[in-house]
Design goal:
The complex is a heterodimer of chains A (281) and B (386). Chain A is mostly helical. Chain A has helices at residues 2-29, 33-37, 49-52, 66-70, 72-103, 109-120, 128-137, 144-168, 172-180, 185-196, 198-214, 217-222, 231-236, 246-266, 268-276. Chain A is built from 15 helices and no strands. The chains are: A mainly alpha (281), B alpha+beta (386).
Chain lengths: 281, 386
C-alpha cells in the first residue's frame, strides 16, 4: 500500500519537474506582456496576440522582434525538410545496416557495432571545424543538405544500435515461413519483416526527427540565411534583440516544441513498443 | 505428391559437421520421422530439404528434379515450425492465404481454399482474429492450415508439438495422423520425442551427431535396434543395458555372465552370431521383457519356472539372478520396479497388483526371445533376433 503510494508520489514529482517549465512557457505565451512582469502563473486575460506576429508573413508590423517572427513559418519548413530527410536516411540506411548486423554472421560485426557506438562519444565540438571545412569545400554551406548530413552522422549510430537489438527479437522462423510460403528474400523482408518491425522503425524514425529538430550547434554553423536556417537557429536570434517581449519569445518557444510534442503523443504507444518491446511470433 | 531423395548430404557450420553424408530415399506419401536428441542434425537436414540451408555437399531430389540449388519459394513444400511462426501483423485468414497470394491464386479461389483448410483444421471461427489472440493449440492449428492450404507435395514439420502442453500434444498427434491419412502428401517430421515417432511414422530415421544410426519401421527400430544408442533412445523407459561376457558352460550351453546375473542363450542364436567365448557384450532387455518372482527357498534355482514373465507364462524360463527392489513406481495400469542387479539399476514393468516393495529380494527372469546383444566396445548389435 505504502509502496504503491510512494511510487505515485515519485511519478507525480517527476511529471511536475519535467513538464513545469514547458507548461509555464505555454502559459506565458498566452499572457499580455504586463502580466509577465507581475509574475503570474496563469494568464488572467488570455490573448493570442503573441502568436499573430508569427503568422503575419506579409505584415508591416514594426513591433520589436517582428522581423524574426515573420521568418518563423519558413524556418519551420526548413526544420521539417531537414528533419524528414534525416528520418528517411536513418530508416533506410539504419534498417539495412541493422538487418545485416542482426541476421548475417560476418567477421568483425561486433567490432563494427562498437565502432558505430564509439563514434557517438566524440563530442560535436571536436569535429566542428573539420566538418565546416568539408562542407565549405563541397560548396554545401547554407544548404539543407549540409545540416541533413551532419544530423544523420549523429543519429545513425543510435538508430542502428536500437534497430539491431529490435530486429534480433524477430524470430528467424518468421522469415523462413515467408520463404517457404513463396517469398524471395527481399519479398520476405518487405512483406513480413518490415511490417512486423513497424514499432521499432517508427520509434527510431521519430527519435531521429526530434534529435534533428532540436539540434543547434551544427545547424548554426552551416546555415546563414533563411534559405536553410532551421527554427532552432532562428529562435536564437531573439537572444540578440534585447527588447523582444518575453511573451513573444514564449510563443515562439511553443511553436518550436509543438511538432515534436504532437509526434511523440501520436506515436507514444509505438515508441514504447519499439524501444522496450519485442516481436513475438 | 513427391518422392524425396537425399544423396550424400553434408552440412558444415564452420568446423562443426551438422549433417554428415546422409543418404535417404523418402517414398511418395510416406510419413518419415527424423528422430534424435537435440544437436543431432535433424533440423538442419529438414532445412536442407526445405531449401532454407544450402548443403555443403550432396544433392536433394524431388521426384526427377534436382532441387539442390532451388530456393525454398520455388520448391513445392510447406513447413510447420516449432514456434508456429504465424505472421503477427496479419489476421488468421491472411496468414493462411499468404502462400496462395504469393503464388498468384485469384482472390475468389483463395477464399474457397482457405475456408476448406480452415474446416479441416476446425478454425473457421478464428479467421478474423490476430495470432496473439489465440491459444497455443489454436496457433498450431492455424500453422497447419497455412501449410496444407497450398496442397504441397512435401510437408515438413519441425517439432510442431513440442511447444504444446502434454494433453494438447496427444490431441494434436492424433490430428496429425488423421491429416496424413486424408492428404496425399509426403510428410517429413522432425522430433526428439521417441513416442511421437513410434506413433506417427511409417519409417523412422534415428540420428546422432549428424549421422544416421538406423532407418526402419517403428516396429523394427523398437524390436531390433541397430546399436545401444538406438536401443536406449527409443522406448520408454529406456532399455536396460548390462555389461557381461559371453561364456560357454561345460554342457555346451551359452550364457552371458555379468555382475549379479547369468542369462542363458539359445545355442542357435549364438551360432548365428558366430561369436566366440570370452567376448565382452552389452545385454539389452526392455522393462516389459523382464519378469520378477518371489525368491524360491530351494537351492536349485536353475530349474525354477517363471510365473510372472511378461507374455511368456508357461514356458520354462530360468532365473538370471537375484535382485533387490530399490524403487517402486505405480503408474495406474502398470507398476515399475527399479531393482539392483550387481550394482546396476534395472527397470522392470510388472502388473500393478504386485506387492513387492523397497528392500524385497526378487528373482529376475529375462524373456529369452526378447534380449538384445551388443558389442561391448562399439555398441553395435550382434544379432538380429527376428
Amino acid at each position: 500500500m505504502w509502496r504503491r503510494a510512494s511510487l505515485y508520489i515519485y511519478a507525480l514529482a517527476a511529471v511536475i519537474y519535467l513538464t513545469l517549465p514547458f507548461a509555464w512557457v505555454a502559459a506565458v505565451s498566452f499572457m499580455p506582456e504586463r502580466e509577465v512582469t507581475q509574475q503570474r502563473w496563469w494568464p488572467e486575460e488570455p490573448t493570442i496576440g503573441n502568436y499573430s506576429l508569427y503568422f503575419d508573413v506579409e505584415g508591416q508590423s514594426a513591433d520589436v522582434g517582428a522581423a524574426i517572427a515573420r521568418q518563423f513559418p519558413r524556418a519551420i519548413i526548413n526544420s521539417l525538410i531537414i528533419g524528414s530527410a534525416v528520418m528517411l536516411l536513418n530508416l533506410t540506411c539504419g534498417s539495412l545496416a541493422a538487418y545485416a548486423l542482426a541476421r548475417l554472421p560476418f567477421r568483425g560485426n561486433l567490432l563494427l557495432l562498437l565502432f558505430y557506438l564509439g563514434s557517438r562519444s566524440v563530442p560535436g565540438v571536436a569535429i566542428m571545424i573539420p566538418m565546416y571545412l568539408l562542407m565549405r569545400s563541397y560548396g554545401l554551406l547554407d544548404t539543407h543538405l549540409s545540416v541533413i548530413l551532419s544530423h544523420t552522422t549523429f543519429t545513425l549510430p543510435f538508430t542502428i544500435w536500437i534497430l539491431k537489438g529490435y530486429f534480433q527479437t524477430v524470430p528467424l522462423d518468421l522469415e523462413r515461413a515467408a520463404r517457404v510460403d513463396g517469398c524471395t528474400p527481399l519479398g520476405a523482408l518487405v512483406r513480413v519483416f518490415l511490417p512486423v518491425t513497424t514499432p521499432g522503425l517508427v520509434a527510431v524514425g521519430i527519435f531521429a526527427f526530434i534529435a534533428s529538430w532540436g539540434e543547434f550547434l551544427f545547424a548554426l554553423l552551416f546555415t546563414t540565411t533563411i534559405a536553410s536556417r532551421p527554427v532552432t537557429v532562428l529562435a536564437s536570434d531573439f537572444a540578440q534583440e534585447l527588447q523582444v517581449p518575453f511573451t513573444v519569445i514564449a510563443a515562439g518557444g511553443v511553436l518550436v516544441i509543438l511538432l515534436p510534442l504532437v509526434l511523440s503523443f501520436l506515436f507514444q504507444r509505438l515508441i514504447i513498443q519499439g524501444i522496450g518491446g519485442s516481436v513475438t511470433g | 505428391m513427391a518422392r524425396v531423395r537425399l544423396n550424400n548430404l553434408t552440412k558444415h557450420f564452420g568446423d562443426v559437421v551438422a549433417v554428415d553424408d546422409v543418404s535417404l530415399d523418402i517414398a511418395d506419401r510416406e510419413f518419415l520421422t527424423l528422430l534424435g536428441p537435440s544437436g543431432c542434425g535433424k533440423t538442419t537436414l529438414l532445412n536442407m530439404i526445405a531449401g532454407l540451408e544450402s548443403p555443403t555437399a550432396g544433392e536433394v531430389w524431388f521426384d526427377d528434379r534436382n532441387v539442390t540449388a532451388v530456393p525454398p519459394e520455388r520448391r513445392d513444400i510447406a513447413m510447420v515450425f516449432q514456434t508456429y511462426a504465424l505472421y503477427p501483423h496479419m489476421h488468421v485468414f491472411d496468414n493462411v492465404a499468404f502462400g496462395l497470394k504469393m503464388r498468384g491464386v485469384p482472390a475468389e479461389d483463395r477464399k474457397k481454399l482457405v475456408q476448406a483448410a480452415a474446416k479441416t483444421m476446425e478454425i473457421e471461427h478464428l479467421l478474423d482474429r490476430k495470432p496473439r489472440a489465440l491459444s497455443g493449440g489454436q496457433r498450431q492449428r492455424v500453422a497447419l492450415a497455412r501449410a496444407i492450404v497450398r496442397n504441397p507435395g512435401v510437408f515438413l514439420l519441425d517439432e510442431p508439438l513440442s511447444n504444446l502442453d502434454a494433453q494438447l500434444r496427444v490431441v494434436m498427434r492424433t490430428e496429425l495422423k488423421r491429416l496424413h491419412g486424408e492428404l496425399e502428401m509426403t510428410f517429413v517430421y522432425v522430433t526428439h520425442d521417441q513416442a511421437e515417432s513410434l506413433i506417427l511414422s511409417d519409417r523412422i530415421v534415428v540420428m546422432k551427431e549428424g549421422t544416421i544410426q538406423q532407418i526402419g519401421t517403428p516396429e523394427s527400430i523398437y524390436d531390433s535396434p541397430a546399436n545401444t544408442f538406438v536401443a536406449g533412445f527409443v522406448g520408454s523407459p529406456p532399455i536396460n543395458l548390462l555389461k557381461g561376457v559371453l561364456e560357454q558352460t561345460g554342457g555346451g550351453d551359452w550364457r552371458v555372465v555379468g555382475e549379479g546375473f547369468s542369462c542363458g542363450m539359445a545355442t542357435s542364436m549364438v551360432e548365428r552370431m558366430g561369436q566366440s567365448a570370452g567376448r565382452e557384450v552389452s545385454l539389452g532387455v526392455r522393462a516389459e521383457d523382464i519378469g520378477v518372482g518371489e525368491v524360491q527357498s530351494t537351492a536349485n534355482s536353475d530349474s525354477e519356472t517363471a510365473s510372472e514373465t511378461g507374455g511368456q507364462s508357461g514356458t520354462q524360463v530360468r532365473s538370471v539372478g537375484r535382485a533387490e527392489v530399490v524403487v517402486r513406481e505405480p503408474m495406474g495400469s502398470d507398476l515399475f520396479l527399479t531393482v539392483d542387479v550387481g550394482g546396476s539399476n534395472v527397470k522392470v514393468r510388472t502388473r500393478p497388483e504386485n506387492r513387492m516393495d523397497r528392500g524385497d529380494n526378487v528373482e529376475l527372469y529375462f524373456d529369452p526371445g526378447k534380449i538384445h546383444l551388443f558389442d561391448g566396445e562399439s555398441g553395435e548389435a550382434l544379432l538380429d533376433i527376428r
